Amino acid sequence: MRHVAHMGDRLFARLLAAMAGVVPVIMAAMLAAMTVGAWPAIRKFGPAFFATSTWDPVAGDFGALPFVYGTLVSSAVALALAVPLGLGVAIFLSELAPGWLRRPVGFLLDLLAAIPSVVYGLWGIFVLVPWVRTTLSPPLKATLGFLPLFEGPPLGIGMLAAGLILAIMVVPFIIAASTEVMRAVPTSQREAALSLGATVWETTRTAVIPYARSGIVGAIFLALARALGETMAVTMVIGNVPQIRASLLAPGYTIAAVIANEFAEATDDLYVAAIIYAGLVLFLVTLTVNILARLLVARVARGPGLIRE
Amino acid sequence: MARSYLRRRWTDRLMAGVTFLCTVAALVPLFLILFFLARTGLGALNLEFFTHLPGAAGEPGGGMANAISGTLVLVGLAALLGMPVGVLGGTFLAECPNSRLAGAVRLMADVMNGVPSIVMGLFAYTILVLPLRHFSAASGGVALGIMLIPTVMRTTEEIVRLVPQSVREASLALGIPQWRTLLRVVLPTAAGGIVTGIMVGLARIAGETAPLLFTAFGNRFWNWDLLQPIAALPLQIFAYAVSPFEDWHRQAWAGALVLMTIVLSVNIAARAVAARHVKLR
């Protein structure tokens, strides 16, 4: 009887461990399956795939530079808007907001994060893009039009709209992660600053932010990974034109968007492989950024040991 | 002295105001989106929307009945795949928190949560659509199911950890083996929280579009064959939103309103239940 119970325990423990082990297995399988799928394109184009701009499915000539450019620029615009905003909110929520306000605001931010990407895209097409065209772009052109960043006709669709909608979508992640690391800062840090006569803002600036810095950088990385891989909303507002233009008002294209738009129609093997190749690199980049982000956040959450600054 | 004190105090107030305004600004889009969904979506919702197949291109009328049922099928498939793996794996993480495997799985699950959903679609495509040479409901369900695993696993872990040690000890003291203690005592105690976590996960994947574009693919008709393409609500919203037809735009808003109602009500219900106990991911 005892022996049987022991057997049961051992088997069950194995089952549980096997189920947990599914996660690394899936990750390895993703890497393997996508490398195999992308192989014809990797062999034919190599790393130059990401440095050339032709995208000609008929001739079988593929280069992903415009998509890489669009992915990086739209994410950069998104972070430029979302990072200051998100940090402001995080400081408010962790240092300043009265207790009764924290939960409802956190709840609303969770809802913002729960809105499906396609709903953002729909709203983007019919509300945000017309607003960018008629309200945001004209004054930008009038005041900053001499910069190459704001040249060209205000179409509404384009990098700026994509960056805006991405910013809205990643802000909840920046807020959640950086609020978490700022709360992990020990209260004694704050008390020390306050007891020296610092105001709340000075406490935040001198005792909280330096301590939480690596975690905040981690939060930004987390948001960057989301922005790089975000597909539907971007596809719906960026214009989907494979070109490299300095202007943020011009349409562009991203890696995720080209996968979304062209993959179902891709017929010959090299075309499919080229798109999987782009997806594989997107996978590897977001993987790296995510791991870095997690390690940075964990460094703060783990507590003391880095108060060297 | 006095002047610098005043200046510091004003800086303090100013920054408090700035961060408060940031908070307001971050929440404005939420209200704008809900406002436009209600305004445009409500007008386009009618019974036909829930009971009819899509109409021919450009003709007014028709609905998304097949897309709604297709989403239910896909979410059901994903649940079949993701729930057992997520719950049992999460139990492992909670019960052997310090093992080397648990550390690695925890990090990987968090990282997997951040893998772009379109990449999940590409993966499902390469392992199912390519070999079977067919877009299919099954491949869409696999793509969504894989996305469900890390969410369910991490939520389960957090909730199983909250089950008091004394409960386990009571059961073990009665001579009940550990595996039965886990299955019959620990998991049922945690069941409420786990179910809530699963609901939130399901609501999230119900709104996913990108991984379905080249797996489930979409279908303008009814389909109950898992090896054939199947319609999904988010796919239909996307197709209608980028179409040139006014009536389809209205239906896209109606679809988005239905989708958002599902997502929001599940989230609100889940958080109302779980707020006191555990922080959901």
Features:
heterodimer; A: 309 residues; mainly alpha; two-stranded antiparallel ribbon; 2 strands; 1% strand; globular; disordered C terminus; B: 281 residues; 10 helices
Characterization of this structure:
- The complex is a heterodimer of chains A (309) and B (281).
- Chain A has ten helices and two strands, in the order αββααααααααα.
- Chain A is mostly helical and 309 residues long.
- The relative contact order of chain A is 0.15.
- The C terminus of chain A is likely disordered.
- The model of chain B has no long low-confidence stretch (mean pLDDT 91).
- The interface between A and B is large, with 90 and 92 residues.
| Helix count, DSSP H or I runs of 4 or more residues of chain A | 10
Which protein chains are joined by the largest interface, and how many residues does each one contribute?
Answer: A-B, 90 and 92 residues
Oligomer: heterodimer
> What portion of residues of chain A belong to β-strands?
under 5%
Architecture blueprint of SSEs:
The complex is a heterodimer of chains A (309) and B (281).
Chain A: H1 2-45, E1 55-56, E2 61-62, H2 65-96, H3 99-114, H4 117-144, H5 159-183, H6 187-195, H7 200-229, H8 232-237, H9 255-262, H10 269-301
Antiparallel strand pairs in A: 1-2
Chain B: H1 2-44, H2 47-51, H3 65-95, H4 100-113, H5 117-132, H6 137-162, H7 165-173, H8 178-206, H9 233-241, H10 246-274
Helix pairs in contact in B: 1-10, 3-6, 3-8, 3-9, 4-6, 5-6, 6-8, 7-8, 8-10, 9-10
Describe this structure in a few short sentences:
The complex is a heterodimer of chains A (309) and B (281). With 309 residues, chain A is an all-alpha fold. Chain A is 75% helix and 1% strand.
